[in-house]
Design brief:
The complex is a heterodimer of chains A (199) and B (190).
Chain A: H1 2-16, E1 35-45, E2 55-65, H2 73-90, E3 94-95, E4 102-109, E5 114-115, H3 116-122, E6 139-140, E7 144-151, E8 156-167, H4 176-188
Parallel strand pairs in A: 2-3, 2-4
Antiparallel strand pairs in A: 1-8, 4-7, 5-6, 7-8
Helix pairs in contact in A: 2-4
Chain B: H1 2-27, H2 31-45, E1 49-54, H3 67-70, E2 77-82, E3 85-91, H4 94-107, E4 111-117, E5 121-127, E6 133-142, E7 145-152, H5 158-173
The chains are: A alpha/beta (199), B alpha+beta (190).
Chain lengths: 199, 190
């Protein structure tokens, strides 16, 4: 019995002391255009793996802006949709306007905050009502971009990723598309889920 | 009796072993255990979801209801574009918003403007030069705010909806003169 314990402890030490080779690495992003000190927050439904095949289409767009903002919401929408379309296509999904397998939504808070409950409520009757019963009280901070992936048939929220970073407000107009693409790419790097391959 | 004692001893040994291995894993930075803890923490807040994160800056935290106020969040205009509908809310009752919207439609040079309202809801429809229908639906939220839904065409057009929305905002914020003329030079509708 003593030998058994000794061997088990030694095996445990041998595996753990150098660090587990299959362990998930901390999330991170590469350099991002016009964004500094990014943070990520990713939720993945455990019972269903988010798909990397099939079709995707657009869900909602939720934008929170200051009342006096001169920002064009439709310009932001076009930039983000362009970035998301490129990334999901790269992952193997095909864009479809009618009856896609998954719905991709986004929320941007340039002012105020966005609560998880507010995001869920935006879907109306398009998602499983069980999601409304979750007591999360989670507040996404001002400056955040949240991407959602929902299975249209099962009505399950499969994946939700949020990125927040300091915005370079002096970024020229022509580089804003690059900023959106970088932010979306940094998030979708962890789609379908963070694993050992990402650093 | 001796068998029971032996079993108890084995359980104690097993518990010690698990505690020892866990401690070693945590001290040595084994990330499977670390990630597991994050996942467990996540499950507490989001049943059925694994949570992965870096930094604390994205969220103000789980279980901090009302933190939007506590963190000094600024006032914001919320716009939702979903299934072709451009949804937002305006300050003012249905009558105020309906009147401002009608003036906005006129400023946009839309034709065939028609609609009605009561204390609870309202509707306005019009057509663009290309005969595309523009439809505005209003619903009272409370005495000081009204929910609005703008739809342009059959499938919706965010850019055109936003143009109408901006015109409505301008009309709502335009100071009204006693003779019913707004600062934008439009005659106020009843």
């Amino acid at each position: 019995m003593k030998h058994f314990l000794l061997v088990t402890v030694l095996l445990g030490l041998a595996v753990c002391l150098p660090g587990c080779p299959a362990a998930p690495q901390p999330l991170g992003t590469g350099p991002l255009t016009g964004l500094e000190h990014p943070s990520l927050h990713i939720m993945v439904l455990e019972k269903d793996t988010p798909p990397v095949a099939g079709s995707f289409g657009w869900g909602y767009a939720l934008l929170k802006v200051p009342p006096s903002a001169q920002t064009s919401l439709s310009a932001i929408d076009e930039r983000l949709h362009s970035a998301m379309r490129a990334e999901f296509t790269r992952k193997g999904l095909v864009f479809s306007e009618s009856e896609p397998d998954i719905l991709v939504s986004y929320a941007v808070a340039a002012a105020g905050e966005i609560s998880a409950e507010e995001l869920n409520r935006t879907y109306g009757d398009l998602i499983d009502p069980a999601l409304f019963e979750m007591k999360t009280d989670l507040q996404y901070k001002r400056g955040v971009l949240v991407l959602d992936v929902v299975d249209r048939r099962s009505e399950h929220l499969l994946w939700r990723g949020a990125i927040m970073a300091e915005l370079d407000t002096g970024l020229p107009e022509e580089r804003k598309q690059q900023r959106c693409s970088d932010a979306v790419q940094a998030l979708l790097r962890y789609y379908p889920r963070p694993d050992a391959r990402v650093k | 009796m001796a068998r029971q004692q032996r079993r108890g001893g084995v359980r104690r040994q097993a518990a010690k072993l698990i505690a020892c291995v866990t401690l070693v894993c945590l001290l040595s930075g084994c990330q499977i255990i670390g990630a597991g803890l994050v996942a467990v923490a996540g499950v507490v807040g989001f049943a059925g979801y694994a949570v992965y994160k870096t930094g604390e800056a994205v969220v103000t935290g789980v279980g901090k209801a009302g933190s939007a106020v506590a963190t000094g969040a600024t006032a914001a205009v919320s716009v939702i574009f979903f299934n072709g509908d451009f949804k937002t809310r305006y300050q003012g009752d249905v009558q105020t918003v309906w009147s401002a919207s009608r003036r906005a439609f006129e400023r946009a040079l839309l034709s065939e403007i028609s609609g009605s309202f009561d204390a609870l809801s309202g509707e306005l429809t019009a057509r663009t030069r290309e005969a595309t229908e523009v439809r505005l639906r209003l619903k009272t939220l409370d005495a000081q705010s009204t929910e609005a839904s703008i739809r342009v065409g059959v499938t919706g057009d965010m850019r055109m909806s936003e143009t109408i929305h901006n015109l409505i905002l301008q009309e709502l914020s335009a100071p009204r003169q006693p003779n019913g003329i707004t600062s934008s030079g439009q005659k106020a509708m009843p």
